[in-house]
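Service request form, structural biology core

Requester: graduate student, group of Dr. S.
Request type: structure prediction, single chain
Budget code: on file
Notes: please return the result as structure tokens.

Sequence provided:
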Amino acid sequence: MKAEVYMVRGLAFVGKGETNHWLAMDGPPEFGGAAAASRPLELLLIGLAGCTGMDVVSILTKQRLPVEAFSVEVEAPRADEHPKVFTAIHMKYRLRGVGLTDQNVAEAIRLSQEKYCSASAMLSRACPVTFEYEIE
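Core staff response, request fulfilled:
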């Protein structure tokens, strides 16, 4: 996998990956940015939520357990001594679908985090990654 990032102005950057889809990034005003786009750490957490979310839906769908609605919220508190370092990452999944049980949802999340989601595998080496879920 590869990605490219280009400076636009100040702390505003654009980047693209292998799919050639562009993303905008910007820093906070206190560091010279305009806060006109997502910050890189926000994109990291959004990527984590998207990566594991797609895995969980895919795993359940392959088990013939269709997911009708899905969301995941990610919270990542930062260290007092270094505000750019996450001390932990916690994900809260919300799912709605036919036939979903505690057992198959928990197993799909576990498989995603441990086996399929590259973002989760990398981040779990830096800090604890935990989850909870709610079946609606």
